Amino acid sequence: MTIRLGGIIAGLAITLVLVLWSLLPGAYNYAFGPAPEKQPSSYFYEHGEGPAGGFAFDGAFGKWDVAQLQRGYQVYKEVCSACHSMKFVAFRNLKQLGYTDAEVDAEAATWTVPGIDPATGETTTRPGEPTDAFPSPYPNAIAAAAANNNAIPPDLSLMTKARHDGSNYVYDLLTGYGEPDPAKAAKVGFETPDGLYFNKHFHNVNIAMPPPLSDGQVTFADGTESTVPQMSKDVAAFLTWTAEPSLVERRQTGWFVLGFLLFATALAFLSYKQIWAGLKPKKS
Question: pTM for this structure?
């Protein structure tokens, strides 16, 4: 018994020594060692707050601004679609933005989508139909990378769900382009490599996508001035809709569910008062 107890104590002592041997150097360096050096890009990154006033769909009582969604679609079509696809959205979905069947048919026909020649079976192109998804501007990922400095433009169908606080992320990214402060850049040794662009709202401030928007780039049908912030807000709202077209309806349904639960709770309480409250429990 004594030998067994001594072995257990010796084993615990050796284990304790090994644990301390592995932990103490790291703890000492953490407490007394030099602070980790900040990356030069961290001096320039700024967390964006989204557009002033937010979006019309924000909050529990938010609603889609149909005119804004139509403007956002126009920005996507005339600017973003040159590089980005939306493979999970069909032309027929545009009916939810207030377009009629005839307008959707006409709009789909303005796009060129991949097709198959029924006579030869060869790959060809044809005008789009309402059932088609928005096409990719590139035939494959290799072609996309070759045309964009080896960076493949992501599909935008679900972009606002794929990024934290996605609506504000898209807006901040589109409005974050500029130039770093020269004095600060020289002080910390920061530079933007060739083929990349400075964006203060991008996580490492150097991004492969060139600035896509410029003032007056799009002429809106409703006469809205097409400034960079305006176009950024509109296309961010549109991409929120493509990612969650039922966002507003889901929130509205939530209010009905909460109302029903409150009613059911009140009904159950009144039933208890009416049927069971008068009964006294039996004494054991």
Answer: 0.79
